[in-house]
Amino acid sequence: MPLFDNSITFRDLQRIKEVDVKLSAKAQALSLYIEAQLLLQKALFSQQGVEGSDFTLQQNATTSSLTERVIKLTYQIEHQFLGLSTCELALVKSLRVWAHTILMLIDVTEAQKHGTKVILCEEYLDHLKNTQAIFVGAGVKPDNFLRSVFAKLATLDAANPTVITSLVQPLILQNRPGMLSLQNHVRQVSAKIIEPCGTSDNALKFTAGLVQAVHLDALLENVVNTDCVRLKVKYPDTRTEQIIPRVTDFRKLSPLRHRLVTNVNLSHGVWTEACPVEISLILSLLDTEETSRTAAKQSEGCVELCTPVKILISPTATRKT
């Protein structure tokens, strides 16, 4: 029996990550896929009555939130793991189309103006065309759901909201997402911040409005393209900044291993007390492919590569002379 199949549970994968380093990346990728499937099922369906009865599509804010989380997870699987085959990546992209389909149905239902409904449907059709082009270019056959969606919507001359929703919703209820099974060795893109270590209780004091440089030393593993690496700074007031490191800040240790040595410039208004600022490394998705409604948001269009390091800072008022 293969190691990873439908009989492997989420708990089994968590255990594998802990005990087998060689399989930890594969187990993590499958864990994320199963999480996305479970969220999609929760967003999509609420079983009514006894086993075997019909499912009902739920249309509410919670469903939108869950579905957007599914989209984020599919991007994470696609970009944070190396070694997935073309067919495996196609399955991940297919799950993303499921999520986009649900969001389209909800948004069209909630939209008040017909013009808004048309725009939403046009965006959905564009996403389908892009996905179909990727599948055709890679020579990959779509699953039953995608094949049916592609076939039905290809006959449309215009983005008619009534027609599109009536064609797509039955397909959502009649199909199920496929199970991901990884055959190749998988490596996970990650980072480790060596400095700052985030253990000091001494706050960095500087004049509010000016810049305080913080030295950063980090190790990047399995990164193919450092152009997509960003420094992420999150302030206590939820303000977030993404900083693009200079090319000269990276030192290539091996084809997929890099060291990043740079300064992170922090600046803020006056605070009454010292507060923690989070610094982390992320992989930007905005330059990698077409972005979705979720990925287009700066705070979400990225993959976290490490646990943020927290440092205390204390911007103080300018001293009067």
Concise account of the structure shown:
With 321 residues, this protein is an alpha+beta fold.
- The arrangement of helices and strands along the chain is HHEEHEHHHHEEEEEEEEEEE
Q: Work out the radius of gyration.
A: 23 Å
- Structural class based on helices, strands and sheet pairing: alpha+beta
Question: Could you estimate the helical fraction of the residues in percent?
Answer: 25-40%
The total count of strands amounts to 14
Number of helices: 7
Please describe the biggest sheet, giving its number of strands, its sense, and whether it closes into a barrel.
6 strands, mixed
Tell me, rounded to a whole number, the average pLDDT.
83
Shape: globular
Strand content: 15-25%
Distance between the first and last residues' Cα? 77 Å
Q: Could you list the spans in which at least 5 consecutive residues all have pLDDT below 50?
A: 1-7, 46-55, 290-299
Characterize the structure shown.
It is a single chain. By secondary structure, this protein is of the alpha+beta class. The chain contains 7 helices and 14 strands. A hairpin with a 5-residue loop joins strand 8 and strand 9. Helix 1 runs antiparallel to helix 2, helix 2 packs parallel to helix 4 and helix 4 packs across helix 7. The N and C termini lie far apart (77 Å). The N terminus is likely disordered.
